């Protein structure tokens, strides 16, 4: 089991390293007496990074300040000593001027700061707490060396957070303890102050440091970072590097979890032996003798995702991969269980589907044979908008919007414009502000803003299809379509991660931000909610009717969600007619 889990975790983290600690190992955990002072240090270090003007201006090598201080904190003989060290360290910074005029902006705060233990006398002297409070109440930060937030609607994506000037220390493949703690404190504080959904995490974020204050060896360092990333409970969260998946092998078939079972859904290669012994719809119960349910249980804590559906989505994509040339697959078919030895191949040799663009051969705007309009957003093009929308809405019985993909064009807005539903805002947005770390402010009042000419509304049903691959911009598009009368959403739980990621998109790849050891990570950096302020994160979009694929449907090649959409449209059309 251990070997399988380690292999899979390396795949999931997209990080494969060779050990460079010359065979040395560390103790399995820090002494208990060191955890409390290190938590205090990490939280104070992060607070000052984003709240003290001199630190925020980049006047210090703030990483080195932490690294230099860690030994003295660890070696302190008693609580009084390490608390005094922290107080003296704070006093070494330039004093902050009193500013009686400082106040919060007159906007709703969707997320408010959590200062952890900063005001807890068990972690800081009373005089230190007073100094921290003075900085919080008086310091004015207009720009920060370590983070920027775009608040100008005319200059790129509004609300986009960029984490800046965070060295990767790529040469430290296995960072020593001080740099591993730097990694932990850096990530913890970035999330604490610049993650809009911090309060929606399963575990209270301010209590997280107690669990992750130590990382064992190089291998465990990567695992610990991945586990920490997973604690954000965010489908936009990843731990990655550039050379993804190289050297990894996979059997020539795809799997998904259907009816809570791991099911073979399609072949991706021409291996005659595999096709002869494995059938579409087969249930896989074990891999190399290890029960699928046990492997899933081991992987869940290391799988970043907003909800269980997306965790299974990510696990199913990698669970049969490995570095050996074959795998023993235990199959359950028609009540009988048997083993199949399946060859694994370099994934570049296989025709692995792109689930964000599941039908690349299709057109974006189509008319199905029963005169129902069908839109596949992953294949929609900007230049086809006007003619395409007119095509699917002119004289059709209804329209299906298949958002079980990632849109290549932001299609809901042109649909709303076509229906004369102008000046439409279909979500509530919250943004960070470097002047108020930890706050995410709403720039709207949470009420829908729609002007329309009712005569232009489409009278027949619009059915939107969703599933666990409906993520981010796809979910945002669903919110737009839900403003159109007579629209229903069917399918299953979506990814629950709307809003631009931290770092944005550059050259088609999300750059994220660095952790020591050459790790790169990112998460959602923009809050998105329904117009009434209700949550979308983790929950996913609101669904009118749950429809899921079945194993029986997979065996016969049916798309049961699409079939149900057609049935809804036909029934409604015949009723009106």
Question: Your description of this structure?
Answer:
This protein is α+β, with helices and mostly antiparallel strands and 577 residues long. It has 17 helices and 25 strands. The strands form 7 sheets. Strands 6, 7, 8, 9, 10 and 11 form a 6-stranded antiparallel β-sheet that branches. Strands 13-14-15-20-21-25 form a 6-stranded mixed β-sheet, sandwiched between helices. The relative contact order is 0.13.
Question: Secondary-structure blueprint of this entry?
Answer:
Layout (H helix, E strand, L loop, with lengths): L1 H12 L18 H20 L1 H4 L5 H13 L4 H13 L16 E4 L14 H13 L8 E3 L11 E3 L13 H18 L14 H4 L5 H13 L7 E3 L8 E2 L2 E6 L2 E7 L4 H6 L5 E5 L2 E2 H8 L8 H11 L7 E8 L2 E8 L1 E2 L18 E3 L5 E3 L9 H9 L4 E5 L9 H7 L3 E4 L2 E5 L7 E3 L6 E3 L9 E6 L6 H9 L5 E5 L21 E3 L3 E4 L4 E3 L15 E2 L4 H5 L4 H17 L1
Parallel strand pairs: 14-15, 15-20, 20-21, 21-25
Antiparallel strand pairs: 1-18, 2-3, 4-23, 5-12, 6-7, 7-8, 8-9, 8-10, 10-11, 13-14, 16-19, 17-18, 17-24, 22-23
Helix pairs in contact: 2-4, 2-5, 2-7, 7-9, 14-15
What is the alpha-carbon Rg in Å?
26 Å
On the 0 to 100 scale, the average pLDDT is 88
The level of helicity is: 25-40%
Give the overall silhouette.
globular
Number of helices: 17
Largest sheet: 6 strands, antiparallel
Low-confidence stretches: 1-28, 241-247
Strand-pairing-aware structural class: alpha+beta
Percent range for β-strand residues: 15-25%
Whole-Å distance between the termini?
61 Å
Tally of DSSP β-strands = 25
